[in-house]
């Protein structure tokens, strides 16, 4: 599905990497919860949802920096550089963040990232 299946064991992967994967997974879930059951106009009107969603994306970005190149290489279809850089944009250009961009990122980009993160966690025995 994501290229050659590599045997990954927990001993090959540090606790820091596992924690980063879990942080990414959990913040994807949070971001998806923040946009669940509402439409874009309602999201745009909710400062709390927009702020919380942007914060979740910042955490995902920061956690992605802790993932080794080897892991990223198993998922070349993901834009790792863009994932890392997004956090800087949210932190430094906070006044230019468009709600529609946050919304689109959560709906269009995070599901693919979640599949990859869960595959890594499963390979490490962290998921059934």
Question: How does this structure look, described?
Answer:
The two termini are 18 Å apart. The protein has six helices and no strands. It has one domain. It is an all-alpha fold.
Mean pLDDT: 89
Instruction: Tell me the helix content.
Output: 55-70%
Strand content: under 5%
Termini separation comes to: 18 Å
Shape: globular
Radius of gyration, in Å, reads: 15 Å
What structural class do helix, strand and pairing data support?
mainly alpha
Features:
128 residues, mainly alpha, disordered N terminus
Quickly describe the structure:
With 128 residues, the protein is an all-alpha fold. It has one domain.
Question: Topology of this structure?
Answer:
Elements: H1 15-35, H2 40-45, H3 47-64, H4 69-73, H5 80-92, H6 99-123
